[in-house]
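Thread: Modeling a multi-component assembly for a lab meeting

Hi all, long-time lurker, first post. My supervisor asked me to bring a structural picture of a complex we are working on to next week's group meeting, and I have zero experience with this. I have the sequence lines for every component (194 residues in total). Could someone generate the structure of the whole assembly? Inputs are pasted exactly as I received them:
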Amino acid sequence: MVTGSSGSTRRRRRSTALPAVSVLRVGHRAGRDPRLTTHVALTARALGAERLYLHPPDSGLAERLASVGRRFGGRFEVVGAPDWKAVVRAFDGPVVHLTMYGEPLDAVVGRLRNARQVLAVVGGAKVPPDLYRMATVNAAAGHQPHSEVAALALLLDRLRGIPPPGRWPGARQEIVPSARGKTVRNFGREEPRP
Ligand SMILES: C[S@@+](CC[C@H](N)C(=O)[O-])C[C@H]1O[C@@H](n2cnc3c(N)ncnc32)[C@H](O)[C@@H]1O
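Re: Modeling a multi-component assembly
Sure thing. I ran the full set together rather than chain by chain. Output:
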């Protein structure tokens, strides 16, 4: 409860908007693990993140994701990040570093749900030690080693849930849920608005 200047009491209004999520992938090895980082990007996009900051930048990966966006819609972007620390410092909101050494995800997620925006950080084969200190929260999706893709998916599910079926803005194709087989709805090419 909050006491107003008139002495009256009113309930603190809890935001019902879902936090906007950006993802930072540090330690991408262009040419060595393109598939894994592509899966980080696809997972971020499919589960409702707005962008992936990619350190170091990889224009090939950014183009692959742009191609997915042209087909399936949405506004997801891949932003090259030559300096990952600058992304963390400039972010206006909690920074959640996903690591098996952190606090249990379900114990910290309540602190994040009311944020306007969250930066989720995942590592690669090696994680820079400074990241543990710079993060607002170090969060573990279980305390066993697994994958940045799985950890990110679990965080996005806790924060935003799985997006419902439907056409995304600008999509040329939409997948129609089906008990068996593959059903895809195609849309005509959209003309740019004047
Ligand atoms: C293959 S792991 C590499 C771990 C790395 N050797 C280290 O020093 O932590 C790659 C990334 O997956 C994520 N990850 C793996 N297991 C995790 C877990 N149990 N909880 C949260 N994130 C995890 C982390 O973001 C980690 O940086």
